[in-house]
């Protein structure tokens, strides 16, 4: 491998770069649209961006950072997207991985390539790297994937509930294909129009498949990378980047699963975790300005180590890095800074202790065990009338209808309480009408001045409460989602659930925690804190019928919150200004509202 730093003088003007727009023939004759940028002389390692968006129309501004770091840059569209030909069954067809592997090998054969290829990408371009790497192309040296979430419970049907945000994404994605095609045509591509008219076939719409499969079945298994047949086949150095508050689903949860359970054969791997939204990383043209600057640096160092072969110290850092209290000053993501960072050899962190806090009939989160008989300690709320609007600060400021939620608040912390992992909630619950109900939870931090900060949410359809014990671990309750078990009015059910993702957060001395139980919100919000990117938490249509839902708090029917606490740890920096946090809306609240209905 090339062990030179191979960095060019910056800034690099576009006039000093060769740009090619063309088509790569696959072994079966299908042609994949690509664009490449490279320096005018020399042989260079390559960075490959593979996507169903506008990859084959990637602008120079997107390639520039990699060119200046001494790489060639190649963007290519999935089959049957953009200007690429293809006959596929649906998105996440295995052909995407097969063709991507062929593109890797084509890159390695070019006269300007030194034979070393790395992949980058956020969201779907992050997911697809695993499908490509599973084919084990000989010249693929490393993958750097962020915002990775796919499949049933981590993206499209989180908690067993169809996500309207993902429906909207699927419906609007075609406009991205068209925009990339239009750009290529304007740049002189005289083949694209004919390809889009007659040489792109998707046999079954992905959205149609998703909507026709409300339970997790074999088809869902076949389109997820989180399995031995896909992620389990990866054998190149792998970096995963995820944020706790990713608005499209369980990116941190899925990344941790991949890292700990399926990439066991990968010797060199890194997991970076932090607070933020869906775009804390990634080179996408429009959203690249949203990636944190320090994450850009970490990703480039990983590429330099495993694609260039530069001894840059990446090997000496622990496998898991957690960035705490990442804030974005003045809205400039390139200046994002973490309050501090911690490194860990594995996940979950072995030192974490899971402590139980009881939900009580007087709306408290208490370290004491529940008391009283089965008929005591009951609270009720009117479903589905109350929803926490998680999105922009403006939306979050609209507090839920009090009779439609139950709120539980802890006493002020007497010392810093450091949370690292996924909280678990156990509820004993009944409905008085209908045969189902959806649970939408929010966990928040409240300081002494009444500033309420969103930490994490939780979603679960009660009829899909069955726990997959074989895959449930200390840090996460996993549901099978294979069978619907409807509710009977008046019967009490135990429901266990983790939140959408783990968290790393310090409940500072004097702060409180608040847990809210309510219903999903079917209205998608256009912006997230700090008002720059769509937020889709709880974009769901509630199941069941209007009902008086009861939560029980007795010794026989204990409801509780299990918190992952790092003993002895304290905050290493002052609390951040909430307005500098991405994906974490905040509001000012003058008093605690317990919520709920009066019981006779």
TrEMBL record:
Region of interest (Disordered), residue spans: 576-600
Top-rank taxon, per record: Bacteria
One protein family per Pfam: PepX_C
The keyword Hydrolase is assigned to this record: yes
Gene Ontology molecular functions: dipeptidyl-peptidase activity
The entry's keywords: Hydrolase
Domain Xaa-Pro dipeptidyl-peptidase C-terminal: 300-562
UniProt-recorded name of the protein: CocE/NonD family hydrolase
Naturally occurring in which organism (per UniProt): Mesorhizobium ciceri
């Amino acid at each position: 491998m090339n062990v030179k730093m191979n960095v060019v003088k910056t800034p690099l003007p576009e006039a000093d770069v060769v740009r090619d727009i063309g088509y790569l023939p696959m072994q079966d004759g299908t042609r994949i649209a690509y664009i490449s940028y490279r320096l005018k002389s020399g042989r260079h390692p390559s960075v490959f961006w593979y996507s169903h968006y506008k990859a084959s129309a990637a602008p120079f501004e997107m390639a520039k950072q990699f060119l200046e770091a001494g790489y060639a840059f190649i963007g290519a569209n999935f089959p049957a997207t953009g200007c690429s030909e293809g006959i596929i069954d649906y998105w996440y067809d295995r052909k995407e991985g097969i063709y991507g592997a062929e593109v890797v090998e084509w890159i390695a054969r070019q006269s300007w390539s030194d034979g070393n290829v790395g992949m980058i990408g956020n969201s779907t371009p992050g997911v697809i790297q695993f499908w490509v790497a599973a084919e084990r192309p000989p010249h693929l040296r490393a993958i750097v994937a962020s915002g990775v979430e796919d499949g049933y419970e981590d993206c499209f049907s989180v908690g067993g509930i169809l996500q309207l945000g993902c429906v909207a994404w699927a419906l609007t994605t075609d406009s991205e294909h068209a925009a990339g095609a239009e750009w290529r045509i304007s740049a002189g591509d005289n083949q694209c129009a004919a390809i889009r008219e007659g040489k792109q076939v998707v046999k079954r719409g992905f959205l149609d498949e998703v909507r026709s499969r409300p339970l997790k079945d074999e088809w869902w298994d076949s389109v997820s990378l989180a399995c031995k047949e896909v992620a389990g086949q990866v054998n190149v150095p792998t970096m995963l980047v995820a944020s706790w508050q990713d608005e499209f689903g369980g990116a941190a949860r899925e990344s941790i699963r991949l890292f700990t359970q399926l990439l066991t054969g990968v010797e060199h791997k890194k997991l970076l975790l932090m607070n933020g939204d869906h775009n804390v990383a990634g080179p996408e043209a429009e959203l690249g300005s949203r990636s944190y600057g320090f994450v850009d640096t970490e990703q480039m160092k990983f590429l330099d180590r495993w694609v260039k072969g530069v001894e840059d110290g990446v090997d000496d850092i622990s496998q898991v890095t957690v960035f705490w209290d990442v804030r974005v000053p003045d809205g400039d993501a390139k200046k994002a800074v973490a309050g501090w960072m911690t490194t860990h050899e594995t996940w979950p962190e072995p030192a974490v202790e899971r402590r139980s806090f009881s939900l009580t009939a007087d709306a408290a989160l208490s370290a004491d065990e529940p008391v009283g008989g089965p008929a005591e300690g009951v609270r009720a709320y009117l479903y589905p009338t109350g929803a926490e609007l998680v999105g922009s600060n403006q939306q979050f400021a609209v507090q839920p209808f009090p009779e439609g939620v139950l709120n539980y608040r802890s006493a002020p912390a007497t010392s810093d309480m450091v949370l690292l992992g996924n909280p678990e909630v156990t509820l004993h619950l009944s409905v008085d009408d209908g045969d189902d109900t959806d649970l939408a939870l929010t966990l928040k931090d409240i300081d002494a001045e009444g500033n309420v900060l969103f930490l994490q949410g939780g979603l679960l359809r009660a009829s899909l409460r069955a726990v997959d014990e074989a895959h449930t671990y200390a840090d996460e309750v996993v549901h099978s989602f294979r069978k619907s078990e409807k509710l009977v009015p008046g019967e009490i059910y135990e429901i266990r659930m983790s939140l959408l993702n783990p968290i790393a957060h310090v409940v500072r001395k004097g702060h409180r925690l608040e847990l809210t139980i309510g219903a999903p919100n079917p209205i998608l919000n256009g912006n997230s804190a700090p008002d720059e990117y769509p937020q889709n938490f709880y974009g769901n249509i509630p199941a069941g019928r209007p009902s008086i839902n009861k939560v029980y708090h007795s010794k026989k029917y204990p409801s509780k919150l299990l918190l992952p606490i790092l003993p002895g740890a304290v905050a290493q920096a002052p609390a951040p200004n909430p307005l500098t946090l991405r994906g974490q809306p905040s509001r000012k609240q003058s008093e605690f509202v317990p919520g709920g209905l009066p019981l006779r």
